[in-house]
Design brief:
The protein is an alpha+beta fold. Helix content is about 30%, strand content about 25%.
Length: about 180
């Protein structure tokens, strides 16, 4: 429908009304596309952006405990070699079969990542009964640690991940050139 043309309400062979929706949609797009002034009205105060919290990951409380943890190898074929854990916007990727240092909040996240287990035989009336839950990623707490050790391991892990990504991109570009 051309701009400025009023929608027509004609009956279709199927008994519906055509044109009304098309005209209404075009009118909405015309409203959205209308240029507006980039200068705010005088009665609106500018926003003080210093009052807002930054989008970076939140820092943990100063009294949080840190632990040295061993992450178990995968127990099922479909499990990944890495575990992704995230708490309040801060995320970590943990390699299975390795020793890491984790704050208490990430250990709690690992505790909540469970897979339900079911009875082997089905009840004829209710189906298979849920019998419990198993952790998706098993771990052992080896002992206490410090925040400094956690930060050091996090920086080392980030460097290793960046180097692996660079090596992967270089090998992919070399294969493309062949």
């Amino acid at each position: 429908m051309r701009p400025g043309k009023k929608p027509s309400f004609e009956a279709s062979p199927l008994g519906g009304v055509e044109g009304a929706v098309e005209g209404a949609v075009e009118d909405e797009f015309a409203k959205e596309a209308a240029p507006e002034s980039s200068v705010p009205p005088a009665d609106i105060e500018p926003v003080d952006e210093t009052k807002f919290v930054s989008a970076s990951a939140p820092e943990a409380s100063t009294d949080e405990k840190y632990y040295r943890v061993f992450i178990h190898e995968k127990s099922r074929q479909e499990d990944s070699n890495t575990i992704y854990v995230a708490v309040n916007g801060e995320s970590l990727v943990l390699r299975r079969g390795s020793e890491v240092v984790l704050p208490q909040r990430f250990i709690e996240d690992l505790n909540h990542a469970v897979v339900p287990t079911y009875a082997n035989e089905a009840d004829p009336y209710n189906g298979r009964a849920k019998t419990g839950a198993v952790r998706r990623a098993g771990y052992n707490i080896l002992g206490p640690s410090t925040k400094e050790e956690f930060r050091r391991m996090k920086v080392e892990g980030r460097r290793a991940l960046e180097q692996a990504a660079i090596a992967l991109s270089q090998s992919a570009s070399n294969q493309l050139l062949r």
